[in-house]
Design goal:
mainly alpha, 0% strand, Metal ion ABC transporter, membrane-spanning subunit, transmembrane helix, transmembrane, Arp2/3 complex 21 kDa subunit ARPC3, membrane
């Protein structure tokens, strides 16, 4: 009973950080600080993203290999974004982040998305958009982690639907920053205009997500599962088999 209460408390803390603390931090950065402190905001987002990940570990400290998986998946994500830099809005970042979430859990998915954004922007250029990209890719990985606990993401239809939804979600959240970047205020009129203007890119995001998910989920997912089983690491499949 005590352990169940402890797990619920940790989940509550994780949800509060991801869906309350980080969004509030982004709003403060875009309005009160007028996007002038985006480097500091980005680092705080990374630190906050680490908290839910480390809260996964019940009664033990995480091993270096567990943290290394997140680093490797983030590096693959960055390399993929660089490799497809010549194709606008066609990147594997969302797919890699989602696959990490599917196999390693929501918290790992969020951390991978956040780290991938700030790391790849060292090459593509840091700016006030970086914290929003970190949050957006993080949310995509977090949602993927919860969906990974079901059998839906083991089907092509599930991957296609998720790829489309993730593409739309990424564009819609980033459009919030686009609107607020003008004067620090939000306007539904400008938001709808921004969403309409970004429609071709939104479609490209969705298509790229579907393509990369269909191509990469099985090979990368199988490798992650083997690593989890071999070393007894935290992940959706491992946790389910241990019940």
């Amino acid at each position: 009973m005590r352990r169940v209460c402890s797990l619920k408390a940790k989940q509550l803390v994780s949800l509060s950080i991801i869906f309350i603390a980080i969004p509030l931090l982004l709003i403060v950065g875009a309005t009160l600080l007028k996007d002038n402190k985006y480097n500091i905001i980005s680092m705080i987002v990374v630190l906050l993203a680490c908290v839910p990940f480390f809260l996964q570990f019940e009664r033990r400290k995480p091993h270096a290999r567990e943290i290394m998986i997140i680093a490797v998946m983030s590096a693959i994500s960055v390399a993929g974004r660089v490799a497809f830099a010549w194709v606008p809005a066609f990147k594997p970042v969302t797919a890699i982040t989602a696959i990490t979430g599917f196999k390693m859990g929501p918290e790992a998915g969020f951390l991978t998305g956040a780290v991938s954004a700030i790391a790849s922007n060292m090459l593509f250029g840091q700016g006030p958009w970086t914290p929003f990209q970190m949050f957006t890719w993080g949310i995509i990985g977090y949602i993927a982690g919860w969906l990974g606990k079901t059998s839906l993401m083991e089907t092509k239809i599930g991957l296609i639907l998720y790829g489309i939804i993730a593409g739309v979600l990424f564009s819609f959240i980033m459009d919030i920053w686009t609107v607020m970047s003008y004067d620090g205020a939000f306007s539904w009129t400008r938001y709808l205009q921004a969403a309409g203007t970004a429609l071709p890119f939104t479609i490209a995001y969705a298509v790229s997500n579907v393509v990369f998910l269909l191509l990469l989920t099985k090979p990368i997912g199988e490798k992650l599962e083997r690593i989890q089983i071999k070393y007894g690491l935290i992940g959706n499949k491992v946790k389910e088999s241990a019940r």
